[in-house]
Write a structure and sequence with these properties.
Blueprint: H1 2-42, H2 45-49, H3 60-72, E1 84-91, E2 95-101, E3 110-111, H4 114-126, E4 130-136, E5 139-149, E6 155-164, H5 166-213, H6 220-238, H7 241-245, H8 257-286, H9 288-307, H10 312-326
Helix pairs in contact: 1-3, 1-5, 5-6, 8-9, 8-10, 9-10
Length: 327
């Protein structure tokens, strides 16, 4: 059974990762397309035409182009922190070249590779946005090229916005780790529940056999089931107790806030452990039914006291009583 669960889990994780990769890639392309379109709308053909030679870099037009990009792709924001942006142009004489880089690392005309030149030429000819991948000396990229439409309706340049493909791989790796941890927890929970079910039927058979040879056998299968249900409900409620307790913690109590917030829960667990040590003797003396009724009443009193608490001391008393009853 465990091997079957493991195989199914691996298949599910593999399928989810493939779907997540496609979904994330599409969302990333939408993000790049929107950014490229915004930058394209802020470009003016006069500024592009005014940067024709290397000495024109850092002139007024170049600064305007740079400012238009830098305003959209602010590296201080997570949205654009992993993106780059280039302004590209194409002509029959010069071919494809980069006019401006976001990181300002070029500063001169920079010829494009053959694949990049072909992509820019395609955008010039079609006037539509191009989405693609590219492998270069600096890494693998996913990018979007959007045309800059001039005053006469012709393509005056191309905005290329992209990011490293490793960004997708990093997201996939992080998501894979989270899913694997979740799957391990699910498998452990299934194994635990399966073990509890087997133990219940085993103890039930022993109880039935004991009734034939003993006058008053202890129904341990009922005890185990009651303990399991009690602690499951207790742990679910305990998850929210720190949020409830902190409402009654004051700065003038003379102890650190973290200690005051954790002390009631600590005392609760201490009394659960202490009373569980004497539980077997009490069962033999009082019987299972009477002890279950008494412990339930004590735990109920503790829960009611916590529900009606108006100060920190009532919270402490309530959790102590709850610990005695649960233990």
């Amino acid at each position: 059974m465990i091997s079957t669960v493991l195989v199914v889990s691996v298949i599910i994780v593999y399928g989810l990762m493939g779907q997540f990769r496609d979904i994330y890639r599409n969302e990333l392309l939408i993000k790049l397309s929107m950014t490229a379109q915004i930058v394209s709308n802020n470009m003016e053909q006069d500024y592009l035409d005014d940067v024709e030679q290397p000495q024109h870099y850092m002139n007024h037009s170049y600064q305007k182009l740079w400012s238009a990009i830098d305003t959209v792709l602010d590296k201080d924001y997570e949205f654009s922190g992993d993106m780059y942006c280039n302004i590209l142009r194409y002509s029959q004489d010069s071919g494809g070249y980069a006019l401006l880089y976001l990181d300002n690392s070029i500063g001169t005309y920079y010829p494009l590779t053959e694949d990049e030149t072909q992509a820019v030429k395609e955008v010039y000819e079609t006037g539509v946005t191009l989405q693609s991948d590219i492998q270069s000396e600096t890494g693998s990229y996913i990018y979007v090229m959007t045309p800059i439409i001039g005053e006469g309706g012709e393509v005056a340049g191309v905005v290329s916005v992209g990011t490293l493909s490793s960004v997708i791989n990093g997201k996939i790796s992080a998501m894979t780790g989270q899913i694997i941890i979740a799957m391990i927890m699910i498998i452990l929970a299934i194994m635990f529940l399966f073990g509890e079910i087997l133990s219940f039927f085993d103890l039930r058979d022993r109880y039935r056999a004991g009734r034939r040879t003993s006058q008053a056998p202890v129904p341990m299968h009922i005890v185990r089931l009651a303990v399991f249900v009690t602690f499951m409900a207790f742990n679910m409620a305990t998850s929210f107790l720190p949020v409830y307790i902190i409402r009654f913690v004051r700065e003038d109590m003379g102890i650190p806030t973290a200690l005051a917030n954790s002390l009631p829960m600590t005392l609760n667990l201490v009394f659960i452990g202490l009373t569980s040590l004497i539980c077997p003797k009490l069962i033999n003396r009082l019987g299972f039914a009477r002890l279950a009724a008494v412990s339930s009443f004590i735990a109920l009193c503790g829960d009611l006291l916590m529900a009606c608490s108006v100060d920190y001391s009532m919270i402490l008393a309530g959790l102590v009583l709850n610990g005695i009853g649960v233990g």
